[in-house]
Specification:
- The chain is an all-alpha fold and about 280 residues long.
- About 85% of the residues lie in helices and about 0% in strands.
- It has a domain of about 100 residues.
Length: about 280
């Protein structure tokens, strides 16, 4: 009984001794949050006043922002507020100086919060920068191709955009400590599928522009190429799982056989048409 009383007394004493630190931590968080609101609103007004937001909305990334219901000035203001608030929370946790398991968790949270904010910023502003860079390079590439082949420049721009987006995502995930054997195949599959779609659209259009006789089967060719890249991308995404590669390979073979069977009447119809024309 005396041991329980002693433990309880020590606990009450620790709480009483921690009250000044708790009050100071709460005050720091509230003050930091208030400062974040004021600074965030000020930055919001500055962006709107200098017309940065209007210029940004003319870009494809700005249009994507707007379609997603995001506002650049509000977003930047919110990021500034979040950054200041996170600094206040980290300082408050340091002042509390809680030991034991709970203290370890609080310290881990304080260490991870800047990473979380940094990862979000890398994704958002990295994609904006990537869009600007890909569009700029795409405009540089267009004069290198004949006007009838403008789709090739667009295809190369889209491929560059997909690769750069994957690079930005990898940077952000590395900062967030989320990279690993599951993430890298996912990014690779995303790149393969996106690149396949971009290549297919550009190549099919280029071929049908030069060879009108292929227009009747252009849709079928697109379907085949989309399906191939989809199967390959899915195989890359699930490559780390046991026996999934074998399953994807079997699906690919079944899919190839089905496409070959469907292709027989199309080839027959085309051959018959060519025979009549000759």
């Amino acid at each position: 009984m005396s041991t329980i009383t002693e433990v309880f007394s020590n606990m009450v004493g620790d709480i009483i001794n921690a009250i000044p630190s708790i009050i100071a931590a709460i005050i720091i968080i509230l003050v930091g949050y208030g400062i974040g609101i004021i600074v965030g609103k000020a930055v919001n007004k500055i962006i709107e006043k200098f017309g940065i937001e209007k210029g940004f909305e003319q870009t494809s990334a700005g249009k994507a922002f707007r379609s997603a219901g995001l506002d650049l000035s509000n977003f930047v203001g919110a990021v500034i507020k979040a950054f200041i608030t996170i600094l206040a929370i980290i300082l408050a946790i340091q002042i509390l100086n809680v030991g034991g398991t709970i203290g370890g968790y609080l310290a881990a949270i304080a260490d991870y919060l800047p990473r979380l904010l940094g990862g979000i910023l890398i994704i958002v502003f990295g994609i904006i920068l990537v869009d600007f860079l890909a569009s700029f390079i795409g405009r540089m590439l267009k004069p290198m191709f004949p006007e009838a082949k403008a789709e090739i420049a667009d295809m190369l721009k889209n491929l560059l955009l997909i690769g750069l987006i994957a690079f930005v995502l990898l940077l952000a995930l590395d900062l967030l400590l989320l990279s690993g054997d599951l993430v890298y195949p996912l990014i690779l599959g995303f790149v393969l599928i996106g690149a396949g779609v971009a290549l297919t659209d550009g190549l099919i259009k280029s071929i049908t522009d030069d060879h009108e006789e292929f227009r009747p089967v252009a849709g079928y060719a697109k379907f085949i190429l989309y399906s191939i890249f989809l199967v390959v991308g899915a195989g890359a995404i699930f490559a780390t799982f046991t026996n999934v590669t074998t399953i994807v390979a079997n699906i690919a073979w079944a899919f190839a056989i089905a496409l070959a069977i469907i292709l027989i009447p199309i080839v027959y119809a085309m051959a018959k048409k060519i025979t009549k024309e000759t």
